[in-house]
Amino acid sequence: xxxxxxxxxxxxxxKELASTLENSSLFEKHPEYKKALQVAAIPERVIQxxxxxxxxxxxxxxxxxxxVQYNSALGPYKGGLRFHxxxxxxxxxxxxxxxxxxxxxxxxxxGGGKGGADFDPKxxxxxxxxxxxxxxxxxxxxxxxxxxxxxxxxIGVSPREIGWMFGAYRAEQNKWEGVLTGKGGNxxxxxxxxxxxxxxxxxxxxHMIQYASGGQESFKGKRVAISGSGNVAQYAALKAIExxxxxxxxxxxxxxxxxxxxxxxxxxxxxxIADLKVKRKQLTELAHSSxxxxxxxYIDGARPWVHCGKVDVVLPSATQNEVSGEEAExxxxxxxxxxxxxSNMGCTQDAISVFEKxxxxxxxxxxxxAPGKAANAGGVAVSGLEMAQNSARLKWTSEEVDEKLKxxxxxxxxxxxxxxxxxVPSAEGEFPSLVAGGNIAGFSKVAAAMKDQGDWW
Length: 457
Hints:
The chain is of the alpha/beta class. Among the domains are: 43-173, 3-Layer(aba) Sandwich (Rossmann fold); 196-375, NAD(P)-binding Rossmann-like Domain (Rossmann fold). The protein contains 15 helices and twelve strands. Strands 9-8-7-6-10-11-12 form a seven-stranded mixed sheet. It has a five-stranded mixed sheet with strand order 1-2-4-3-5, sandwiched between helices. Helix 7 (196-212) crosses helix 13, helix 8 runs antiparallel to helix 9 and helix 14 (398-423) packs across helix 15 (434-452). It is globular. The mean pLDDT is 95.
């Protein structure tokens, strides 16, 4: 691919998967899968379009819109839409590539895709964001559909933007169908969808803790460091607190919030932060809050990892590459035993290498790492459940959806565990490699479906 422009995020994601497959026995048992990897690395389709919209001053603005339809062997393309100035094809290809294997691990009938625009919602009025969302959907509408491609929200795209885009799609196509997930609860959305990624992340880690402790431990009494302060971080924090954990950090793009008292970050503070995020405000606002300012340290321009003190569980839940190799070493020194990505590709390759080396050397005393394609699959899993409810014109209760989510995350963990044991033998007392198990299990399912359908042979 030397004739193509550099795509560092995508190249990192590809190399991470490819190296895992090459260092396992998969290609020995299935040498034909080398060709499958070559084919699966290229998206089925990449759509790029211009989005013109009018700002509040009556001036025409223009942005780039994208949709990477990566792989549909297992079902309609499925993956979020991101509105952020950093959006480019490299980032969307990395996210779409990861999405293929994440969706496969849910066990649901979903292919992989990702999209968005280089539009920055920050500093824009609600009216401007609405106008952009409608204009974006007009460009995207002809390429998606309930049985073709079902986008969802991502960074910069909340249920509000999903609503505006759904209305634009309905008007453009003259039909009501489950073409977007993350919809409003009274017009086709699923209960538990906002909570799903964070809840699913905690459910996955709960299985890690139980396996590592022989069923003797849970989240109860654990000190949990979380980055980010959006939906994933908020609901991971709330669920971990419900299960008896103490949350010691949250963060945003401006800095990190570190709890200073034994109660940690409480549900009240999480709800306060959720309200700030709805208003598109930063965590710095808390520094001026008389109610909360004495309960934490705010560290400007920092990530929480080297500031959180003793920690048991680490949940990166902000963005890609937010844990470096050096920070990985510091987390191990701080006593961390479990790290699972709530964000996509939250750890750099250097950090993953540190965690995997420690896992092999320290065996049962080591830190245990779980990749995002497995640990944060709960969000897209409930999106898949929303698709099922839309197809059947049904609405399940919160309890029904939550039970299905728990089952999906349990099956995902067991699949990663069993696949790792089969293809990457571990030494006595060594935790199986969940990153290898997730990569191999997700890739194998996609590759087998592609072969059955003649995409490679």
